[in-house]
Amino acid sequence: xxxxxxxxxxxxxxxxxxxxxxxxxxxxxxxxxxxxxxxxxxxxxxxxxxxxxxxxxxxxxxxxxxxxxxxxxxxxxxxxxxxxxxxxxxxxxxxxxxxxxxxxxxxxxxxxxxxxxxxxxxxxxxxxxxxxxxxxxxxxxxxxxxxxxxxxxxxxxxxxxxxxxxxxxxxxxxxxxxxxxxxxxxxxxxxxxxxxxxxxxxxxxxxxxxxxxxxxxxxxxxxxxxxxxxxxxxxxxxxxxxxxxxxxxxxxxxxxxxxxxxxxxxxxxxxxxxxxxxxxxxxxxxxxxxxxx
Length: 293
Known about the structure:
By secondary structure, this protein is mainly alpha-helical.
């Protein structure tokens, strides 16, 4: 036993050096980030390869007999392979169906499986969905067309006489928004000049404004003394909403460079002009004469 546990000085030094090497290797492994070989995939080459695979699939499908109409929800591994679908595309569909979900359109089929546009264009003409799916689509389209249908000017209510309670009948307009509309309308003598002024009401989204203008419109608008853009002074321009003194100077400077404005759209090129407010500003302007005349 003594011979196994008694070491000479050289042996002890060797063991000590070995332990140091082991500890150093462990530290090197855990704390030193050695460079690894990165794999760079060329997206151009990958897309080219994908197109080639799709073309081979389509060529194979064209050589076969045209498949009969089928419900894509019942595609299995064999059927998918025959149709030219890849393994991953088939697996995505099977995983989707395993959750007791159904594909009810060609667009949804592509979204679930991830098939290419070219393959979908070949398969989709043969898709056959149940009658209840087609009826549901028709009813949705009919309902959508009813919503989209707009009333005539005569059938709409006057936006300038509408009460807050009447405005609340519009989906998306509650007590707060209806109150803001009425309050903002009352800041103008005689009410709104045009429907576009609804865009100035804080909190009204374009969708809600669209719903309002399907039922309401400005009928008895107050007459506004419009300003000739090609004759207006700085003092005239600053009376228009969204135009301050700096912008008024820029407008006149641009007018002089152009020898007069021909259209209102030329205002969009004026420095610092509020592009999203041009329809509001146009309500107070007119073009009668050029400054050279």
